[in-house]
Design brief:
The protein is of the alpha+beta class. It has 2 helices and 2 strands; from the N terminus they run αββα. The longest helix has 11 residues.
Amino acid sequence: MSDDTDRDHCLIDAVAPPRADGPPFAECVLCGKPTEHPESYKGITLCPVCEWQEAQRTACSG
C-alpha cells in the first residue's frame, strides 16, 4: 500500500510547521510552553505534549 492509500480514509490534511534549529521557539497555543518550531512561524504551533494529545483526540478510528 502506498502512503496516499493509507490516508484516503482520513479527512484531515495537516501540514506540520517547520522545526527550528534553535531558540527562539514559538509558544504552544494551548499551554504556552516552548514548541519545537521557530518563533517566526505564522500559524498554529503545539508543544510535543499537546501535539501528541491532539493527535490522540483527532485520530481516525478505523
